[in-house]
Every structure is written in C-alpha cells, then in structure tokens.
Fold:
Amino acid sequence: MTASSSNELPTFDGSSSQQSPEAGLQSSAAMAAAVPTTIATPVAVTEEPGLILIVDDTPANLDVISQALIDAGFETAIATSGERALKQVQLAPPDLILLDIMMPGIDGFETCRRLKAREVLKDIPIIFMTALDDIDSKVHGLELGAVDYITKPFQEREVLARVRAQMNLRHANQQLAASEARLHSILNSLKDVVWSARLHPLEFLYFNPVMEFLYGVPASCFLEDAQQWLQMIHPEDRVQVATLLEGNQPPEFLDCEYRIIRPDGDIRWLQCQAQIRSHGLEKRLRVDGIIHDVTGRKQAESELKYAAEHDSLTHLANRAYFIACLNKLLEQPRQRRQDKFAILFIDLDRFKVINDSLGHLCGDQLLIQVSKILKRSVRPTDLIARLGGDEFTILLHNVCEIEEIVTVSDRIQSELTHPIALAEKSVTVSASIGIVQDEAKYNAADELLRDADLAMYQAKSLGKACHQLFSEEMYEKAMEKITFENQLRAAIEKLEFCLYYQPILDLTSKTLKGFEALVRWQHPERGFVSPGDFIPLAEETGLIIPLGDYIIEEACRQMSLWIAQFPQMQDLSVSVNLSERQIQSRGFIERLTLAVERSRLQPKHLKLEITESLLMENSELTLSLFEQLQAQGFRLSLDDFGTGYSSLSYLHRFPINTLKIDRSFISVMAPGDSSFEIVRTITALARTLKMDVVAEGVETEEQAEYLRSLSCEMVQGYLFSHPLSDEHATQYLSNCFG
Ligand code: C2E
Ligand code: MG
Ligand code: MG
Structure:
C-alpha cells in the first residue's frame, strides 16, 4: 500500500512526549478521504528473498545479473524485451523488476508506464538499468514510478545492494499494510466509536464507521463541521461536554455521560472516555477517545429508580420517595425557605369492607380511581404518594393560609362523593383527612407524617368523611393513649383483672336466673377502672382477644365452682360479653369450647352477649358463626337492644335466645311516652320470635312495676343488686339457696 491509498488509516503520534503531538496530523480534507468505510482485506506478506524479473535485450547482461541474484538466494525470471516483460508479469508477478531502458520495440520507460497503469502491478518496485546517465532520464524514470536507478556498466555488488534495499523496503511496507489492515478490521467491527479530534477549533481527525450509525448522520456531516457534533448533544448536557473539551483545567482524562438527540428524534445516552493531548501545560491540542452507547443501561437504571420511588399500582410516589422529598424540603434553612407547605394524610373510610366484599381486584381499581381523583384535585407541582393500603399523602406546596388547605381537602371530599365506576359495580367512598402545616418544630418527615396520621385518626373517630387539623392537644391525647395502651398490655400479662357478677332475676318470682359477668381492672394507681374506659381501647388494639379469653376462662371456672357448691345452679347460666373483634378472631369457637370443657361445664351454662352492630356487618359470616355456636349448645343474647340499627327483618334469621332492652329506655320510661312504647314493642317482638327478654338497668320500684305491666320476664339492675365480687356473689347465692 502506498501513502496515497484511500484505505489508509491515519496514524497519529501521540505516544512520544518528546515529539510535538501535531507531528502526525493531516489536513481534514485528507482525513475526509481517509475515514474508512469498508473492511480492508489483510495483505499477504511475501517471504524473502523473492522473485526478481530481469528485463534486458542483451543476453550477456541477463546471464550475469541472473546468476548473481540466484547466488544471493533470489529466484529470477528473464525477459528480453518490454513486450515479453509485460506478458511475463501476468504469468508470475515478481517482487521486483530490473528494467533496461534502451530496448528495441517498447523501451523501458514505456514498459514502466504500462506496468504502473495496471492496478495489480503498480506496486511492484522497478529499478531502471541503463547506460543513460543524464539527470533528465533519471528524473523521468522516477516520475514514471521507478524506485531506483542503476547505471551501466553495473557492478554486481551494487545491483545486489540496491535490490536488497528495495526488497527490504517492500517487505516492511507489506508488513505495515497487513498491520494497518488488521487495525482497520478491528476498528470497523467495533460497536463503540473510536475518535480523534483537533481542539481549538474542534475538527475531527478520525472516527470509525459506527459513528454514522450511532449518530444517525453521514460522516461528512461531522467532517465538514465538527460543531454539528456538539449541536447534536442534548441542550441540558451540551455545556458540560463543551466545558470539558474546551476548558483549560484538568482533568486530562475525561469520563462523562451525555445525551444526544438524533435526527429521527431518538434520544441516546452516550458515555465518552477520552484523553486530552496537550502541548506543555496549557495548550490542549487534541482529544482521542471512545464513545460507548449506554442507553440500555441508563434505561434500566431509570426503570429501577422509578420502581424504587413509585407505587406499582397507582404509579404515585411511594412512601420512601415522599419521605425523601419531604426531608429534602426540611433540610433547607427555614429562613431562606420560600415554600410554606402542608401535608394531607388521607385514609379511605370503609375501604376494607369494599375490598372484602367486592374482591381485591375491585379494591385495586378503586385505589387507581382514587389516585386519579387526587391528581385532579391538586396542582401538578404538589406531590401525591400512596403510603400503602388505602393511605395516601399529599405534599401541598406554597400554602400559607389554613383556608387554602381546607379548600383542597374539601375539594377532595366532594370529588369523592361522586360514584366511582369499577368493572362490575360503582361505589361511593369517603375519606378521613388529617392536616399538618409546616412549623419550626418539625425537623424530619417522620414527625410530620406522625402528626398528620394522628389528625387523620381524629377525623376517623369524629365520624369519618371529614378533615382534622393537627393540634398539640391531639398529640398529648395520643401520648396518653399510648401510655394507657402500654399499661393495659402489662395488666393483661400481670392479670390485674377480675370479674364482678350482676344477678339477673325473674321479675315476678324474684328468683335468680343467672349472672352477667362484668370485667373490672384493678389498676395499681388508678384503682378500679370501669370497662367503659378500657374495653374500647382493648378492642381497637386487639388486646381484647387475650383479655376476652381470660374473661371466658374465669367466668367458666367460677360457674363450675358454684354448680359444685350449689346444685340449684345447674339450670342457670353466666352471661359473658363478647366484642366483635373477639368473635371474629381466628379459632374463637375452638378456644371457647376448650374453656367450657376444661371447667367441665356444659355450653348451656354460658350465655354469649353480643351487640347489634355485629348482625349488620358481615351478616352472612356472623350467621354461620352463630349457627355453629347454637349447634354446640351455647346461648346467645342480644345486648343493649334498641340502640343499634338492627333491622327487625334481620332478627328472625339469627338464632338469638334473649333480647336485652337497653338501660337508656328503662331509665326514662313512663306510661304513654315513647320509651315505654319501645319497651312494649320489644317485649311483644321477643314473645313473637320466642325469645326471652331482659330489661337492663332497673333502678326503681316504679320501673319494675311498669315492666311487670308489660309482662317483661327478667330484670337486671341496681334495684335488685349491683355487680358483686365473686366473694359477695357466693354470699348472694348462699342467701338464695342456702
Ligand atoms: P353491658 O353489657 O350493657 O353491661 C351492663 C352495664 O350496666 C354494666 O356496666 C353494669 O354495671 C351497668 N348496670 C347494671 N345495672 C345498672 C343500673 O341499675 N343502673 C346503671 N346506671 N348501670 C347499671 P359496666 O360493668 O360498667 O360495663 C359497661 C359495659 O362494658 C358493658 O355493658 C359491656 O358492654 C362492657 N363490658 C363489661 N364487661 C365486659 C367484658 O367482660 N367483656 C366485654 N367485651 N365487654 C364488657
Ligand atoms: Mg352485657
Ligand atoms: Mg347492656
């Protein structure tokens, strides 16, 4: 290959620190031609010494030179004229031609010209041999492409030296061409861009063909105007790249990632690693580097980041991301912070019921719809997150007045009042919203979320579908509640509870019909704590389950003792109050049965008092539970009857044995008033449904008289007896049966 070959790879000398890095630079026009577009075929390297063709019309010359070359280890071929030489080279292309100029027919110059005109032959070195010694002939010969000149009469030693020198040169060229072809092949097959450019101004010296593919533009585009390469960089990244290239600060080694926008609009992420070549300390001359397409990795990274920061169902931010954003906001010095923000903590009311009754798929759809409603209700700059389940939070930016926050909260509530269409049904939901405003005392997101959550719970306890603004008082109450909860938990472990027993009597005969077991907490500091004060908390926290088990065990144990002591107790029962959560707890019936068996009681000795609300919620489940209890022989009592919302049409479906009329009707009843009529109706209803009826909270003779007039069979109340300790109850039984 010669220096003018279009396949030539530009070579740069950046390796030697002694030499100017400019040394190997070529003009950009030359480079335009030099940018390789095809994969070069490696050139075969001939083994030395090679085949020499000697062309001379003097046979004596041919013999002498041929012999000398053969003696030196070369192979030779001979031709006695230019015409023959041209034929001969076609048969066996030589590695070098010794060519006489003065020959009959076509002379050496013409022979040389014709050889050089043939593509396959033009690289064969030609040494002229002639007696012509004038400068013009020599120059003419060299211009025709000859590499050297031997003057006749020749010396054998000179011929051999010149032939050897040319053959060595040819061999070195062949090796270089082979090496370059290999390098070409490698560069052309790379998927990464390899490039080199002059700096100040930017001008490409080399890049491999994949550049065109990666950037989606022809090579000429960058070769003609290297600025176009910079222009293709994403505007947000351009300055960074330009600064790195143009800047006169270290680093000498660049490693940066940037985006390009291709002409088809496609955005690719590229990683560029490059070495700046400088002259001395200041002058940056050239940059050589590699560009690697990292779009796939960047996409995977951004997908991972998205997944780590978002909720997969609603595509809202998740808890971690919300907290991170909030913390970032809190990190800014308060005095410099422009943004006065607020947090809304939103929890859907009765979501569990919808989820359980319509199925999780509908539940998911509902959450998606709610997330859309939330998005509609706030500004795009506000951050909405799903914390989990049916809990959402919103970070409202730039809200100074509480009125603004309340407006947003009201907007959400009112949007939620519209029916939401799900696949099979449409449902309406409401939400309880807790609000907390940014204040100096808040240092971390957790604190804000904790208070917003508290306010949300307050909204729930105030009847749901409303909002509550967090207050200090709320926090103190919550703290008290936590303390109380801890005490309750400890009390259950230490068994600080006991049961009191209130007699239930036949109103006419005044004979004992049974007891109602009522739990008492013997608090070490507070003294007796009434169940009204701790049962709701025990229910809320689930502590009612272990506590309830203890109460059942204890009532059974006591009843068993009494039956052993007073055989008349055989036909009586002890009533135990059950809470909803307790009944619905896993394995309730098994534990109940076990307690009864352990104390050698029969199920009929235990009456289970439940409230009306249980019949309404999950009625199918409750029905099957009640049927199982009834089948086992337990008796069921509907407590506080009349205060709930139980539809009378429900009542006959459930296997209830007793209705207990709530104390609130008894305490105010007088003939002719509504309470009196309610008590009359309940008594009649119980009789129709073949249920027993107990009037609760009878305190006066007058009330007892009214109840007698309504034929109410059984009573319970202070008029007859307060709840009694086990000791006093035993005393009471001694009086009855002793
Ligand atoms: P309840 O089941 O309706 O129990 C009757 C309540 O009325 C008892 O209050 C009792 O002491 C009170 N009482 C009885 N006669 C009269 C009267 O003539 N006048 C007045 N003013 N009150 C009377 P207590 O013991 O404070 O229990 C309150 C509620 O706590 C119970 O209402 C029941 O719902 C719940 N509770 C009590 N013990 C337990 C228990 O062991 N487990 C569960 N889950 N709840 C219980
Ligand atoms: Mg009761
Ligand atoms: Mg009651």
